[in-house]
Amino acid sequence: MAPEILPGGTAAADGDKADASEHGRIADEMLDRWGGLASGLPLLGAASDEEDEYGLRHLVRHLAAAGRDEDVHRLLACERPAPGRAGAVNTWFDARDRIGQADGYLADLELARRLARKATDVAIAAGRTAPSLGLEMRYALMAVCARFTGTRTYDELPPMLVEAGIWDVTRALTAARREDGNERRAGYLSALLPHLPAKDRQQVLHELLHPGFPNVLREVWPQLKADEFAHVLTVLENDDPWYVSHQLEELAPHLPPELLGRAVALAVALPLDHRRDQALAALAPHLPPALARAALPAAMELADVRDRARVLSELIPRLPDQDRPETLTALRAAVAAIDPQAEVRLWRWGELLALLPAAKRPAALADLPADSWDRAELLMHAAERVPVRERAPLSAAALTAARDIADPLVRARVLIQLAELLPLEEQAAALAEAHTASREITEPPYGAWVLTEMLEPLPAHQRHAVLAEALTITRSLPAYDVDDGRRDWDDRARLLMEISTWLSPDEAEEVLAEALDLIRAVDDEDQRFHGLLAIAELLTGRRRHAAMAEALDIRLEDVDYENYFHGQLARMAPLLPEDLMVRALNELHGLNRPGYLGRTLLGVAEHLSGLAVDRGLDIARELTERPHYQAAALAALADRLPSAERHAVLREAEAMARKNRQGMVHVARRVPIGRRTALLAEELTFRQRGFRADQDEALASLPDEAARPVPFAYVPVPVLDRRWDEEGQILLRRAQRAWRRGAGRTVVIGIVRTALEKYGHQDPPGSAALTSAARDLGGPLAECEYRRAVHDIYRWWP
Question: What is the DSSP letter of 708?
Answer without folding.
Answer: P
